[in-house]
Structures are given as structure tokens and as C-alpha cells.
Design brief:
Length: 305
């Protein structure tokens, strides 16, 4: 996700990559939301520019199709999403992508290519009914919207700031590469009472937890609170010897920290997070989900730099 978006202007006049976080949908009384940078968006897309971008994304899709990580990714999705279907009834799901950026960036184009493979997998799975796939980034241009539409994604017209809700009848896979902690917290708090219907593919919650040192900060961290109750699966191992490693590392390097000690040439860069019913019930028993949503504070995103 571009560093030039998701800026929240708070009461202290302090600027950071943060949208408003509230348990309920944003109200008219919410503090102002501003961006450090707003890309120019022509009223009419440039056909030549759109065609060039579309060609680039399609090339990335083809290259990624041959990558070694897709099998790991699909195995994780199959084990934690497709397995949720009840008897002969397909699981109804939506794919929501936040923060990919403008596809003029190679990183954003790679991230869209990954989203395309996820959408195709969901749409082709017998146990899943993909109701729709959508995406949003505030710096997307009209040319980006043309590319997204050509890849079968709907482009959201408003900034939800992560407040989209998942339900039992419409479960949700959020794909959030390079997004800041505040946006993750918004998604979690918007679904505080329905976490079992939420799946998040993006930055590692356990890595966020590992970087919290002070006890007071740990108590305020939503990631530290939820780590015991989430199934986190690292997927997508890329060997440094692979031709596309450098580009993949640049596009996804914030999605999982470190690599296994016994495999120094391997980098793991995706984490899929799921909240099984048994763990949600445990969180309820332990009082975690009874905590006021205003008690959580993500601090800063400096640990992503």
C-alpha cells in the first residue's frame, strides 16, 4: 500500500497513516479524515494508459501462476475457508481488498495479480459461492478502475475506512497487503461480534504482538489480545533463487516478518488469519470480547518501516 494514503488528523494535530477507529460506522461527528496525497483522477480514463496497465497486470498474473507459493496459499484457504461450509450448502463469501495502491506501481500490480488468483480460486471452488469481489484505495485513478474492472473487481466509490461487516450469510475475506495497523484494527472492531465470519490475509498478528514490549502497550494492543484466539497460517514461501524473488519481496515484505531459522533462504510473506468458533467462544469466556472497543490503541506503524 502506498505510504501516501490513509492519513488521520486527530485531536492532537498529529498526522499518521490512520483512519478513524470506532466500533460503529462513522458518524457525522467523526474527526476529519484527510490524505497526504491525492492522485489526480481524470474524469475520462486514458484508453492507452489503461491498456498498458492492464497488460502489465496480466503479465504479473501469468508469472505468478507459475510461482511456488500459490499451492501453499490455496491449501491455507481450503483448510480455513472452504472447510467452513455446512453439509451441501456452499459458503457464501465476499473478497474485499484494501490498500493495493495505484497499479502504475509494480508492487500494486503484483498485489492485484495475487488478488486475481484468490478471486479465481474462490469462484472456482465447489464448496464456495463468491458473491462479489471488490477493492478500494484512495489514490486509485480512473485508469486503475478500468484495470480492476477488467480483472472482474468492483471498485468501491466510498472510503469505508475498514468498517465493512461480515455476517454468517456473507462471510468476508479481507486482503490487506501493506496496510497500517489502524486499518486492521478498524476491520476487527467493526466485526467484534462476528469475528468467526472474518478471514484476513495480510500482516502477521503474531509479529505485531512480538514487537510489543511494555505491559501497558500489550494490554492496549488488539493484536496481543486476539493472538491466543486466532488461527494464523503462514503461507507463500519464496526461495531467494527464484527469478521473481526481488519483486515479490518488495510487494509483500510487510505481510510476514522473518523466516524459519532452519530455512535461511526462504521468506514467508503471507499470513492468513481465521477465527474458528471454538476460539471465539474461548475469547468470550475469557472476557476478551467484553472489553470496550475504545480500550484498544494500535500506537504507530513505525514497526512496519
Amino acid at each position: 500500500m502506498s505510504d501516501e494514503i490513509w492519513t488521520f488528523v486527530g485531536r492532537k494535530g498529529k498526522s499518521a497513516r490512520k483512519p478513524v477507529v470506532k466500533h460503529q460506522a462513522p458518524s457525522n461527528d467523526a474527526p476529519p479524515f484527510a490524505y497526504k496525497h491525492k492522485a489526480s483522477a481524470p474524469s475520462v480514463p486514458d484508453k492507452d494508459a489503461s491498456a498498458i496497465l492492464l497488460g502489465k497486470v496480466r503479465r504479473h498474473v501469468d508469472v505468478m501462476r507459475r510461482s511456488p507459493f500459490l499451492g501453499h496459499l490455496f491449501d491455507a484457504l481450503d483448510g480455513h475457508i472452504a472447510s467452513r461450509k455446512v453439509e451441501d450448502t456452499p459458503l457464501v463469501i465476499q473478497l474485499v481488498c484494501y490498500g493495493l495502491g495505484s497499479f502504475t506501481s509494480s508492487n500494486a500490480a503484483y498485489q492485484l495479480a495475487c488478488a486475481v488468483h484468490i478471486r479465481e480460486w474462490l469462484a472456482g471452488h465447489a464448496a464456495i459461492h463468491l458473491q462479489h469481489a471488490c477493492l478500494f484505495d484512495p489514490i486509485m485513478t480512473q485508469d486503475d478502475a478500468v484495470v480492476a474492472s477488467a480483472m472482474d473487481f468492483d471498485v468501491l466509490t466510498t472510503n469505508e475506512q475498514g468498517h465493512r461487516r461480515a455476517t454468517k450469510s456473507l462471510q468476508t475475506l479481507f486482503f490487506m497487503p501493506h496496510c497500517g495497523k489502524q486499518l486492521y484494527q478498524n476491520v476487527l472492531l467493526a466485526n467484534w461480534e462476528s469475528l468467526q465470519y472474518v478471514f484476513i490475509l495480510g500482516n502477521s498478528f503474531s509479529a505485531y504482538d512480538d514487537r510489543v514490549v511494555a505491559a501497558a502497550d500489550r494490554h492496549k494492543s488488539i493484536f496481543s489480545a486476539l493472538v491466543p484466539y486466532v488461527d494464523e497460517v503462514a503461507v507463500g514461501k519464496i526461495a531467494k533463487s527464484w527469478d521473481e524473488y526481488v519483486q515479490y519481496d518488495a510487494a509483500f515484505n510487510d505481510m510476514r516478518y522473518g523466516r524459519p531459522r532452519d530455512a535461511p533462504l526462504i521468506k514467508t510473506w503471507h499470513s492468513l488469519h481465521a477465527f474458528p468458533a471454538t476460539k471465539v467462544e474461548a475469547a468470550i469466556r475469557d472476557g476478551v470480547l467484553a472489553r470496550p472497543t475504545g480500550s484498544f490503541d494500535v500506537g504507530t506503524d513505525e514497526d512496519l518501516m
